[in-house]
Design brief:
79 residues, alpha+beta, single chain, 5 strands, 2 helices
């Protein structure tokens, strides 16, 4: 499970045997979310148990670091 980074107690990662489209899983504080790259923007596609205030922080982190997420994904799966 390649972890991209951690913020505010949340782990941002993908699994080593993933599928397209590019997406990122987020886990922490007894919750889970998944954001999928749709038309050059990460959109929330799944969530369970994450408070609204935490989702706001997570969305901002993903928006600010989307280039890093995409680069990490592409580097990992181009091996």
């Amino acid at each position: 499970m390649p972890e991209i980074f951690r913020f505010y107690g949340f782990s941002f990662f993908f699994f080593s045997r993933e599928h397209t489209p590019i997406h990122v899983h987020v886990e922490g504080n007894n919750g889970y979310a998944k954001f999928t790259l749709i038309k050059n923007k990460f959109e929330l596609t799944e969530t369970k148990g994450i408070k609204t205030s935490d989702l706001t922080k997570i969305k901002e982190i993903i928006k600010d670091n989307s280039d890093i997420i995409i680069q990490y994904w592409n580097n990992y799966f181009s091996k």
